[in-house]
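Hi,

I'm pasting everything inline rather than attaching a file, because the server keeps stripping attachments. The sequence lines come first, and each chain or strand is labelled.
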Amino acid sequence: MKVEIGVKALGANERQAEANRRRLREAGWVAVNLLSSPGSGKTSLIEAALPRLEAVCAVAVVEGDVETARDAERVAAAGGRAVQIETRGACHLDARMVARALDELELGRPASGWGLLLVENVGNLVCPAEYLLGEELRVVLLSTPEGDDKVAKYPEVFRTADAVVLNKMDLAPYLDFRVERVGRDLAAVRPGVPVFPLSARSGEGVEAWLEWLVRNARERLELRKSAGA
Amino acid sequence: MHEFGIMESVVEVVREEAARAGLRRVERVAMVVGERTAVLPEALELAWEALRDGEPFAPGARLEVEWRQAEAACPACGLRYHPEGGFLLVCPGCGALGGELLAGEELRVASIEGE
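And the predicted assembly:
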């Protein structure tokens, strides 16, 4: 007997991602999926963002790594609420792992009315792109030492980005990194995506990204609320 | 190597669908995979052989993949074309960048067969 099914190969993950999104939304939270290569500065950016974000909303962090809880410890040391997912070999986070992290976080409705859940994915520009986690926004980081050709080389992850952060701009004068080359490739891969050159280390440019993040997170929350979905 | 994660999910989908259809022995699984999913045939086959173990899979159960070519539509001149040379969409007619991908991102379990 032949049975036609025609379901998405990653359908189980997408269903779990939707369940995560609904669960977060009902408690007033918006998840942001942060993607990049290892070492591009996702954790540093979270550390730089924490004190400023906490002035406007509740913040919690999910850290994804193959091994160690070092990133969650860094975020906790910076005063943040964080849980670590150790994937034990897997090269990406999936929606089920995030669901377990949500169980651990027990996010209630924040006193400030809403909250941001920053999910730092496993450092990898390939596989994480395919796995929805329940996020409303995707932010892809690229740091200047990685080179300005990465959008063309790893387009899939950039094709799903709601914003692109160019980190370590303070190093740009010592490197052959050209923001305009990144912009040209993005015009083909993800036309119109906002780009934020910044330095998590010096703090320069971080404010503009945070302003975008807060505005868009709030918009998504309002949109969902009014759609009743 | 994202093929393993994809195949884990495929195997789960097949288990669910086989149970729903009352199939106890799955002998054949058909997938549709677009060329822009960056799925490698050999790696997908390897993952299939490693993961299609035990119930409800028949020993030697086969995976058949229909590969789909990519097709893009130019935002400027409307030309439909097969995007060449990597993932950047560049219209071969007018040179415009970007545009809509009409096909090539499929990643589906199309059917299962057994008894």
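Chain A touches chain B at residues 1-13, 90-92, 94, 126-127, 130-131, 152, 155-156, 159, 185, 187-189, 191 (CB under 8 Å).

If the labels don't parse on your end, tell me and I'll reformat.
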